[in-house]
Amino acid sequence: MNNYLSDLKQKTHEKYQELIQKEKVNQNAILASISLVQNEQNVILCSLGTGSKAVGLNHMNEQNHCLHSCHAEVIAKRGFQLWLYEVLSKPNDIDKYFEKKETKYSLKKEYKVCFYVTQPPCGQAQLFPESKIYGMSAARPFSEFFQEAENIPNCDTQRLRSTPANSKTPIQQKNPSFCCTDKIMIWNIVGIQGALLNQYINPIYIDNLIIEFREHFSLKEVFDIGKRSGKSMEDVLKINNKFISKAFKIKKPKIIYTRKNLFVYSPYHPNNDELNKRINKDINQQSLQSFSYLYVDSLGIEKINSLNGLKWGLAKKDISKLQFLPKIAKYQLFQKFKHLYEHFEGKQLQCNYRQVKNKNIKYLCLKLNIKQCFQEWSLNKTQYEQFQ
Ligand SMILES: [Zn+2]
């Protein structure tokens, strides 16, 4: 493991250094990457994301298909989906990474999926009572969107939470999507390929979740739906006593804690004693960065404005044009799906995004089962998914 772990970290950080080379940006941005490790040694960096901001509810509407969350984990995961579309568009690449099982493609067993993030994901993973570092802008339960005054203890592990915002942020400027901890918990059941790609490929699960983390307690339980909800595996995976699909499971990724990567200018660098004292402050400074980077292997980079979820540096006249949406916005990924559909089915897709998502009944049922494990759920965003 150690061999490829250092290689994987190095590849991620080298790519990030390459991205920021020409810009004076904070070296300590939160990074997340998804790599495939072939036969425990060959690291393929598929996608990389940076960032810790998300747009407010006020940016979300039926016309604006911006990226709702620009957290590093979300960017990396969407980037991975884009990477999958690239692979599926090239027959040689399909054979390299996938084998066909019955009607769908499955990732070959020789590849392990490694998800690497440079701090514990927002939400429950940052809300341990022992943790004094995080929590300045804590992820709050979704009930906040309905009754603002409710006083809910921060450490209630059974509640799902929204993306963090400062407690003083007005409700309209808060983001009603899941925090990253809860997203990863859900990806451990539905996979990271998404509902659309699941029509052609079996779920792809995170095998190793690698987190830069300095404390002495385990984060294992926060990504485990059984531990979080108290429900059984059957409650999650079965309907009327029958498995929804044998392809879905509750994956418990191996969690690997790793030390901070030491940049010369990093506050974590042992030589920077003075800066070391400011770690708390620094973590809050990270959230000041108002852009995100996306890197996808074979597609290059994109800079995203994380305050509005659009491409960085757009002229005002271009803001509402769909072709200027980030490559990983749902709208853009759907265009990729339409190409893939045409390629595989030999006909044009006539449905909108939501209708296609709803066609994957098994995925939908699984999501409903997960929803029933908890008292609350993210705000319903289906009205924003009616595009073609
Ligand atoms: Zn997050």
TrEMBL record:
Q: Which domain of life is it from?
A: Eukaryota
What's the protein called, per UniProt?
A to I editase domain-containing protein
The record's PROSITE patterns line, in alphabetical order, gives: A_DEAMIN_EDITASE
Report a single Gene Ontology molecular function.
Answer: double-stranded RNA adenosine deaminase activity
Q: Name one GO biological process term.
A: adenosine to inosine editing
Q: Name one GO cellular component term.
A: cytoplasm
> Which PANTHER family does the protein's record reference?
AT07585P-RELATED, EUKARYOTE SPECIFIC DSRNA BINDING PROTEIN
Matching entries from SMART domains are given as: ADEAMc
A Pfam family annotated for this chain is A_deamin
Q: Where is the A to I editase domain?
A: 47-340
